[in-house]
What we know:
The chain has 267 residues and is α+β, with helices and mostly antiparallel strands. The protein has two domains: 15-75, Winged helix-like DNA-binding domain superfamily/Winged helix DNA-binding domain (Arc Repressor Mutant, subunit A), CATH 1.10.10; 86-260, Beta-Lactamase (2-Layer Sandwich), CATH 3.30.450.40. The chain is 42% helix and 18% strand. The chain is globular, with a radius of gyration of 20 Å. It starts with 14 loop residues before the first helix and ends in an 11-residue tail after the last helix.
Amino acid sequence: xxxxxxxxxxxxxxxxxxxxxxxxxxxxxxxxxxxxxxxxxxxxxxxxxxxxxxxxxxxxxxxxxxxxxxxxxxxxxxxxxxxxxxxxxxxxxxxxxxxxxxxxxxxxxxxxxxxxxxxxxxxxxxxxxxxxxxxxxxxxxxxxxxxxxxxxxxxxxxxxxxxxxxxxxxxxxxxxxxxxxxxxxxxxxxxxxxxxxxxxxxxxxxxxxxxxxxxxxxxxxxxxxxxxxxxxxxxxxxxxxxxxxxxxxxxxxxxxxxxxxxxxxxx
Length: 267
């Protein structure tokens, strides 16, 4: 069955597919949910949702856990396929190896998806005290350095279309009000990089810069360090390392995907 067009658009969506994808997306946080939980969360009748759940389970996208459901092993395949196909990820992988060796702190490649930043590549520091993250993890963009540096590439109107205020709180340092967020983004536009000072994880500071991958940048590069190790000298090492890594990524992007118009960054 086709769903009617959304008001003001010409897009037609298939309702059953839309609902099935909403189920999968509702479980990407690693949660386990019952039929009733999902029906309430997604506003879908239980009878309809039951058929969707059984179909997804039979195809391996979901796994039943008693009366509840969680993601099945087949849900791994699209993510792995995306990482294999994404040119920015493939170009960045060896450069991230060099960056983590240079900075000796955890480094990430992330992409802005709606109002979240999604980690799509990472390299762990060998330090015993380090930030725990995983590829595929999503965090609110407003609470992360990568998210903020990418939001700073958007207009205020575009940002207002993404968020509802007050913003979600992750720590006492998270920015939650519009005035503070817009002031922060203006500072990032001036500096050219963003910091997250305990806004997503207390005791950890993250520094991030944008990768120029097209008219509206979608990717960012970051390095995260515990505050107990972050001296002024180490912050300079991290920022310089990020700039050099970005230049290498953008130079290779300009060769691989000239239509993106990527330009080498200043060192």
